[in-house]
C-alpha cells in the first residue's frame, strides 16, 4: 500500500509540474469588425490608393533556395511588375511580370510574362505549361482588388503569425477562387497569404517591413515561401521603386541587348 501511495504522489507531482501558463491570452475575437472593414484598414495601412492601384513595382535583393536539405544563396533576386487595372481571377497571370534570380553571375531563374505570352531564356513557352507555372505564383495581388465589385470577403478564426495576433480573411474572387490573408491586429500589416496550387497549399509569410523616405508604401523586407508546410525559399528585398515606366522589352526573353531596364 505504501508503495502505491508513493507512486501516486510522484504522478501527482509530475502532473502539477506540467501545468502550462494559465494566464496566456486566448485568440477569441476581441472586436466585431467585419471582414470588409478590416480589409479597408489594411489597404490604408499598406499605402492607401497608391498601394491599391500601383502602375508598376520594381524590387531587388537576394534569395535563399532550399533543395534536398541544402540552402543555396542567389546573390541577386529581382522582380519587375506592371499591374493590370482590374482583376477577375486571383491565380492567373495578368499585367506584366519578370522574375530573375542570379547565382555566380548566371540567371538560375529567368521567367517573364508580357501580358500575352510567357517566356524563359529559351523563348516563348506553351500555354499549358505557362498556366501551371503562374498558378503557383500569382496570388498576393488579389488583395488589392478585394473590395472591388464581385468579390466576397469572410472573416475566419483569428490566428498567431510569427507570434503576432492576426485577423484571417478569406477572399473569393468573382470566379470563386479562394485566397486567405492574415492581417496583424496591431498595425494592420499583411503578414500571410495562402492559396491552393498545383504544387500544393502555398503560403507566404511577410515580415521586416520598410518604406522609402517620404512614402507611405509598406514593403516587406522578408518573404518566406512554403508549399505544403515546407519552406521552399525566402527572399530578402532591400530596394523597391514605384510607378516607373518599365519598357516592353524587359518582359520578352531572351532579352534584347539594347533593352534599357532603367527609364
Task: Draw up the topology in text.
Layout (H helix, E strand, L loop, with lengths): L1 H16 L17 H12 L1 H5 L3 E12 L2 E13 L13 E8 L2 E8 L4 E3 L2 E2 L2 H9 L16 E10 L2 E9 L5 E7 L5 E8 L2 E11 L8 E9 L2 E13 L21
Antiparallel strand pairs: 1-2, 1-13, 2-3, 3-4, 4-5, 5-6, 7-8, 8-9, 9-10, 10-11, 11-12, 12-13
Notes on the structure:
With 263 residues, the chain is an alpha+beta fold. Helices cover 16% and strands 43% of the residues. It is built from four helices and 13 strands. Strands 6-5-4-3-2-1-13-12-11-10-9-8-7 form a 13-stranded antiparallel β-sheet, with helices on one face. The radius of gyration is 23 Å and the shape is globular.
Estimate the mean pLDDT confidence. 90
Give the helix/strand class: alpha+beta
Characterize the quaternary organization of these chains: single chain
Contiguous helical run count: 4
> Which percent band covers the strand fraction?
35-45%
Identify the notable features of this structure and list them briefly.
single chain; 263 residues; alpha+beta; 13-stranded antiparallel beta sheet; 4 helices
In short:
The protein is an alpha+beta fold.
